[in-house]
Amino acid sequence: MQPTIGRVVHYNPHPTQARNAGLPPQLLGDPHAALITYVHDEKDDPAEKDWVELVVFPPRGMQYTVSAIEGTAAGDWSWPPKA
Description:
Elements: E1 8-11, H1 15-20, E2 32-39, E3 51-57, E4 64-69, E5 77-78
Antiparallel strand pairs: 1-2, 1-5, 2-3, 3-4
């Protein structure tokens, strides 16, 4: 699947970003809903071609924006599992 603007994805919060957004530590292990707002490609910068910009919506605290790459580590985004 290709990331496109407006798609909903999961964001695996990085502890520092989540703490700055006011998220309680006990909610760090779960993915947060996020919306893709921009998709980088090779025309922007070849080094950023797999990166996207996200608005992250934690279950509590303030929404925040991040640049992220697809993956499963803290600070990465992933597709939600099929229902």
